[in-house]
Design brief:
Elements lengths: L2 H9 L3 H4 L4 E9 L2 H4 L8 E7 L5 E4 L7 E5 L2 E5 L5 E6 L16 H17 L10 E10 L2 E9 L10 E6 L5 E8 L5 E13 L2 E11 L13 E10 L1
Antiparallel strand pairs: 1-2, 1-13, 2-3, 4-5, 5-6, 7-8, 8-9, 9-10, 10-11, 11-12, 12-13
């Protein structure tokens, strides 16, 4: 394992503790410009997300109605009612985004796919980078806001669904993640600078509770506006 990755995983609680756990849940308060752009304003303003730690699976509830929830896996997404019956579903969802731009609206299953990818990633990294198929290498340090951050280039394996194959993580002096860069391929490849902060320790795992995502310019610097997505987590629990 890359030395920087090993240091980062240990700072977040360590693989030994992570491997003793199976699922995580959290209450989310979400806002930002993205949801209205995609025709999904208000659908996920306040929800509970549940994610598997060792398989790419996630669910949001409620999902557009009090008795509905999403079911996400890379190869299939569905919206289920209170009885578990499928209301809408989309098999092999990734190709359905072909030709999309930032302004292209999403269907409910497409929204479920995006937020499934997003929250599974945000709730499980950096631990998932120890899974098979990931490639990591350290980049030159990055200076921002009077701080120097180490950087980890990550290449995701093809068996997992993610924002983009190539991503960059920024790590503070304490080993905790502070920023996450990626390109949202299913939204026209738009570039994002995702800031991560306000850590809580839950069940021995350090979890960021504040996420703020802004556009990223060609020079790698974040733009001050618009605020694309904000996510605040509370009631975090591991089982």
């Amino acid at each position: 394992m890359n030395d920087l990755l090993a240091t980062t995983i240990e700072a977040h609680g360590g693989l030994e503790r992570w491997n003793q756990l199976n699922k995580v849940s959290a209450r989310l308060i979400q806002s930002g410009a993205l949801w209205a752009l995609k025709g999904q304003a208000g659908v996920l303003d306040e929800v509970v997300v549940t994610a598997s730690l060792h398989q790419e699976r996630a669910s949001h509830h409620p999902f557009g109605a009090a008795d509905r929830r999403s079911s996400f896996a890379p190869e299939r997404v569905a919206i289920l009612n209170g009885n578990g019956a499928v209301v809408e579903a989309l098999d092999q969802p990734r190709p359905s985004f072909a030709g999309h731009t930032l302004e292209t609206p999403w269907s409910a299953p497409q929204l479920a796919y995006f937020v499934g990818i997003a929250m599974w990633t945000y709730l499980t990294q950096p631990f998932t980078l120890a899974m098979s198929g990931f490639q990591t290498s350290e980049l030159e340090p990055w200076d921002e806001a009077g701080q120097r951050w180490r950087r980890l280039r990550v290449r995701w394996p093809s068996y997992l669904a993610t924002h983009s194959t190539e991503q960059t993580l920024y790590i503070g002096k304490d080993g905790l993640l502070v920023r996450h860069d990626y390109d949202v391929e299913i939204s026209g490849g738009t570039s994002a600078a995702h800031y991560i902060s306000d850590y809580d320790e839950v069940a021995g795992i350090r979890v960021p509770t504040r996420h703020r995502i802004f556009p990223r310019g060609p020079d790698g610097r974040s733009l001050a506006e618009p605020l694309v997505v904000s996510i605040d987590l509370s009631e975090i629990a591991f089982t």
